[in-house]
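Job type: complex structure
Entries:
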Amino acid sequence: MTNEIRDALAEGKKAASKGRSEARKAEWGKTAASILKNPLTVAGLAVIGFLLVVAAFAPLLATHNPNIQNLSEALRAPSKAHFFGTDEFGRDVYSRIVYGSRITLYIICLVTVIVGPIGLIVGTVSGYLGGIVDTIMMRITDIFISFPSLVLALAFVAALGPGLEHAVLAIALTSWPSIARLARAETLSLRKADYIVAVELQGASKARVIFRHIMPMCMSSVIVRLTMNMAGIILTAAGLGFLGLGALPPAPEWGAMISSGRRYMLESWWLVAVPGVAILLVSLAFNLFGDGLRDALDPRLE
Amino acid sequence: MNDIKLRVESLNVSFPNGKEMTRAVRGVSFALGKEKLAIVGESGSGKSTIGRSLLRLLPRKAIVSADRLEFDGSDILKASELEMRSIRGKRISMILQDPKFSLNPVMRIGDQIAEAYRAHARVGRKIAEEKALDMLEKVQIREPGKAYRLFPHEVSGGMGQRAMIAMMMIAEPEIIIADEPTSALDVSVREQVLEVLRELVDRSGMGLIFISHDLNLVRHFCDRVIVMYSGKILEEIEAKRLDEAKHPYTRGLLDSLPSLTHRRSSLPTLVRDPAWLA
Amino acid sequence: MNNPKIVVEDLTLDFGKGVDATRVLHGIDFSVADGESFGLVGESGSGKTTVLRCIAGQYGHWMGSIRMDGKALEKKLTKERCRLTQMVFQDPYGSLHPKQTIYTALMEPLEIHKIPGDGEAKIVDALENVGLDKSYRWRYPHQLSGGQRQRVAIARALILEPRVLLLDEPTSALDVSIQAEILNLLAELRSRKGLTYILVSHDLGVVAHLCDRMAVMQAGKILETLEAESLADAEPKEAYTKTLLDASREYGRKKA
């Protein structure tokens, strides 16, 4: 206790002159520091950063136009002119990978932006209100969970026609339930915490309790789960692309590249290997980063 | 003091904390004979750390050093893990605070006690069961046969704690370390558990180290009291002479307790002198 | 008692429904005078905290009547209701939101009730009342010690200016030396602001120090009511009370 008091006082002297934003910045700084402690996490973060850079500077990094065909150069092995060789239409594989990163990023962002808020809201509202609201929302969640994403995507595409946005919607619809369940589980245990009861006794409305007090506590686990889901999302998108249900040709989506390269795989290994490795690296990076994030944000360790 | 069982000289325990080092125990020295010794302190005083360091149960990153850490003539500090295993539970035992958390929730109480016995004595299941039943009776649990078959969540706090005592004493250790054994129990149950502990310790001539934050409790229960603050020993005094305590911290602790018999309008508060940390 | 502040009559509470229902409170009766400090003593399972939570408004499914200043307390937690009583919780490590600064935690009730005036000034004032420097408002709970957190919890409870403070074992999780400070603070606040306290505790010493009268509870019933002043020599009627008293007296008595 005495060490605690001494530390608190010392910190207090430091924090005495600072205000609210400083306090918050100090907290973020601590989290960032603990994230950066694990080398694997840093590696994952580096790959993600790399992906962002490649996507942002695609026009500068690509050596050729990804869509221009040049049949005389078809199926060339990797060389100085074509880092990753060419495909069956003579398009530069390297440039297609580079531009394909934009599509991958687009899918990840869109899915996260849909899945995160919906899952969080459904989960916290359902967990906090309980009763009939909880029952109904959880049954709806169950329905969505029982659909394999690929099957649902097929159904969507059959109904709405192929296209990247439809594929993304399909993926989003099958990923939100796990976030909702996670948020609900957290909410159920948080509901009984003294600090929640305290704010209820102060007269806070249910909405206020959920949005201002419960959601911030669920945020860490949801962010971690979203990050780790991204690996799966990339793979599912690749799978859809592979089935021809994702981005329409000639879009350089990595999964679609593997699909079309399948036919020439045995002689032209680079058609399949390169996009495959790209998908692998990005999935792995998100997994590693998510792991490290969870270690850093885990409230138990605080 | 007769038959010194344990000698501790200049014990230091530190925990690395990022770039800093937290010194939990600083230069602690004491000896334990056939007596009930209390180690009293507030949170952060290092009292629990001492208990665990005697059994070498601290996390691996803890740094333990001492001039002497001797149990019955043999050096604990340098003993191998194998040697420690033969000491833990058999020659030095530890009773923890909350039976809710220290008893295995999926094993029946009797089985856990029997298992504790079989860990140190090469006997068959039947004999261990009988010994366990015998122990349950010794800790004054009525209907030991019925209690044997209960799970930890089916028994009250007092009974669970007595079961824990049975488990830790069944191998007839020479030293028992009790870490806040009654803090999680209701007041009306405490006396009963303490009575059981007192009887078993007195009868078998064990040494008892009683770790607690409750000065009033130990003054009636133990023979000697060691007062700790921030990892150091501030005072060592006979329990029945606690009122003659000289150190201002001990006096401060005694005075700041609200008492039934001695009502005051304002309780004296402890003023911490940084000199105590030196 | 003339003009009691709080009157509890035949308070009864069941948990669970139908065949699984367990009766936790059996017809509790007691009154608390204005400005009095009343204690509820008992061990775990006695129902003392449950009584407190009924009065606080956390549980709404009780039967019987609870009246404050003659008016029946509503079972719903309306904004007016919240300004009548406030609660200080037992565990200082769980009663403050881990991700909110002290400032936010203290501002919250002011915002909920749309209290006009300078919020910051009120917060600084509230912290000073509990002996904390105003710089503490930018800290997070994990940067505070147990005693400091409990002070913040008291400040938070008082910021809406309730007349009645409900204290659920406010010092049982604190070290002895810190307990003395908090008990002194509570006593001082009560006399300065003329508050009424209902204190729940299992520690007779604490209750004897802070309260004028106390009710001993066991298994959801009040066994008897005692005066704090005469506690040391009291000859209780109930055997259970005698056990509690003896256990506490033994600890408090100075050995001759």
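Summary: The interface with chain C takes residues 1, 4-5, 8, 11-12, 15-20, 22-24, 27, 193-195, 197-204, 208, 212-213, 216-217, 299, 302 of chain A (CB under 8 Å). Chain A has a mean pLDDT of 85.
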